[in-house]
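Annotators were shown the component list below and the corresponding predicted structure, then asked to write short factual statements about the assembly.
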Amino acid sequence: MNNKEFINELSKQTNQSVGATTKLVNDTIRILEEHFQQNDVVAFSGFGSFEVKKKMERISVNPTTGKRYLIPPKLALSFKQSNVLKDKFNAE
Amino acid sequence: MGKITLTTIAEELVARNGVSRELADNFVHAIVETIEKGLREDGLVKIKGLGTFKLMEVSDRGSVDVNTGERITIKGYRKVSFTPDSAMKEFVNRPFAHFEPTELNEGYPAEEVRLEDVGGEDGVNETVDVAGLPESPVSSDCQSDKTDDEELKSSEENAATIGGIAVSEVDEVSEVESKAAVITGTEEVLVPMVNEESVEVEENEVPVTEEPVVTEEAVGIIEEAAVTEGEVVVAEETIEPKVSVSEEEKPSKRGGCGWIIVVLLIALTCGVYYFITIDQDALSDYEAKIEEYNDMMVNPNLEEELGEEWDEEPQNAPTPKMTPGIIKSQKQQAGVDSSEVSTVQSEQQNKVMPTDQESGSEKYCTVKLTELLEAKELKDITPADTTDYIIDGTLVTHELKSGETIILLARKYYGDKRLWPYIVKYNWMKDYNNVAVGQMINIPALKDKSH
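Structure shown to annotators:
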């Protein structure tokens, strides 16, 4: 399911026009971004939770040249599925 | 840092988009349901600006029961994985976006690299920079600082009352003093002298002024720019306390390993000081002297003199020899402030003494550091003038293994690590710090010149 199919499906469920749905989805993503910026944990009950985690810097080796690089620390968005969701997909 | 739920998101959606509360609630729940539906149908949902949800199979894996110690199998399951798309990734990582991967210096085993990082970070690297290229990026930084000052000056009204150049000089001097304050960490004396704009300057300066050497570069520029004698005197006066500060502070921080760095730093600060105070013409003269001291360092006579010490502590011998060498050459050249030099020299001797009395582990530490220092110091010397041997064909061809360095090879085949330049010369190596595992290295057979 790509972005277009996702929007279409969503507009069908909420009885909104495709344009209005697109705007709502974008606004939701902006809201999520604001929370990620503040280091919040965003939990969708029954689905999973999003969290920004800090990855420490590390040394990695390029296997072909053998050169060693210091990879800087970074912030990465991580997702953890909830147990409810896990059970839904593993019921059968 | 709080936990945000779907309800909160719905509330914010109402505030932002102006939709009804009911619709917003339905909408956020519909998003979750649609994602679930898409996963069930395709196993994949792509949302632009957010990322991709994907259904992944996790296969069975074996494990051990923590309580009973029995082997158990954890059954495989399906897992929803999420990959943020590039826009979201960049947005989240924005606070750290300025970092970039850097290549690490190769050629040292991990242990030595770690030592270099700890001990040599500000000592060794700065040493090389200042000795090798006096007009390094550091000085260009200082020049840009100066232009900043001039901008500040032009924006200030009261500058006109005192007179253009004099004000800029005063600014720069106070800037130097503020740098000194950063180094010592005691600002109380200087605070009254620093007016508003130099406080700003200080804030700008903080990342640059980590090193006494750096500030001295700045002083050098000020001195060159200075026209009248009196201003030079002011600048010179600012140097003296700083040197003493660096002498007092560093040893307490680093302990045993720091001594050698401190000794080298003192020698260098002296060198930079004389390089500044003496005419530019003296530069070439000075370089000649440096080469002389290098020759002196590798002079076999000196080695014979210190022969016994070599046997006992071959690692400590090079450093005590090197530092008097620098001082001597500077003494000959300067001839003016010999009293100062002698005081510094006596201080250095005081500092070299404890090195000889250190315990075994600290000695080991010094070996590593001196090796590193030697490797850096010797960079400009043509290889193979260490001792008097001539190359006589190939002894053996060695395939480099992991963890081996040229110095280790010299120790292995000649029993003396100081003979590594012959290997470098014989193999036409451009960068002997950069050797690869598996590289074939011809070990030359050496014949004593006197025979």
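Statements collected:
1. Chain B has three domains: 6-96, 112-380, 389-448.
2. Residues 6-96 of chain B form a domain with the HU Protein; Chain A fold (CATH 4.10.520.10).
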